[in-house]
Specification:
The protein has helices at residues 15-26, 52-62, 84-94, 106-110, 118-124, 169-177, 188-197, and strands at residues 2-8, 32-37, 69-72, 99-105, 127-130, 132-133, 139-140, 157-158. It has 202 residues and is an alpha/beta fold. The strands form two sheets. A six-stranded parallel beta sheet has the order 3-2-1-4-5-8, sandwiched between helices. Strands 6-7 form a two-stranded antiparallel sheet. It starts with a strand and ends in a 5-residue tail after the last helix.
């Protein structure tokens, strides 16, 4: 199988995450997308980061109605902080019959040279790059490449026409802390679980 690895802290997972992952599946670039819950992102030190088991539970709820999306806790068993090149290497060892692609936003693509062993990632794994919004609300465009790449090689695959989902986990956490309604941004089961447990209220 061709599997796309869509990593993140998912703090919390929202409808933009699942919609984008499903969109990439529908393009035929991969057979499945695994939403890889990161226990610790080396670029994010967030005091509001929920326990990894709680975030994994929310992702499991979010993907339950998407046959080609999976929640993954694979990184929970790896050294911390979580480095993508280690994750991809260990995935290739654990699933030798499958091939893996990395799915990242254009904001992370702009910082990709700073990633640990980024050249090694590019040499061995396709990277699928999707647009993101800038803080100002302007779209962060992808100016290189095109969307006609082949997910079986290690060349970056750019998706400049991918839908833009103006939802952020940070905004959701702030809204929850303020007591605002965040139900339009979340899967109903995820929303109910967050409210039931009183998550992000402090």
């Amino acid at each position: 199988m061709k599997i796309g690895i869509f990593g993140g802290t998912y703090n919390p997972v929202h409808l933009g995450h699942t919609a984008l992952a499903n969109y990439i599946c529908n393009l035929g670039l991969v057979d499945e997308v695994w939403l890889m819950v990161s226990p610790q992102n080396p670029f994010k030190q967030d005091h509001q980061l929920l326990d990894e088991a709680v975030r994994y539970r929310l992702v499991t709820l979010a993907v339950r109605d998407f046959p080609r999306l999976r929640a993954s806790d694979f990184e929970f068993r790896l050294p911390r902080p979580s480095y993508t090149y280690v994750t991809l290497h260990e995935l290739a060892l654990a699933y030798p019959d499958d091939t893996f692609s990395l799915i990242i936003g254009a904001d992370n693509w702009a910082k990709f040279p700073a990633w640990r062993n980024s050249a090694d990632i590019l040499a061995h794994y396709p990277v699928i790059v999707y647009p993101r919004e800038m803080v100002s609300g302007e779209r962060l465009m992808i100016s290189d490449g095109d969307s006609d790449g082949d997910a079986t090689n290690a060349n970056p695959i750019f998706l400049p026409s991918a839908p833009l989902y103006p939802i952020s986990s940070t905004a959701i956490r702030c809204a929850l802390a303020a007591g605002d309604d965040v139900s339009p941004w979340l899967d109903p089961a995820v929303h109910d679980e967050i409210i039931r447990q009183g998550l992000y209220r402090q």
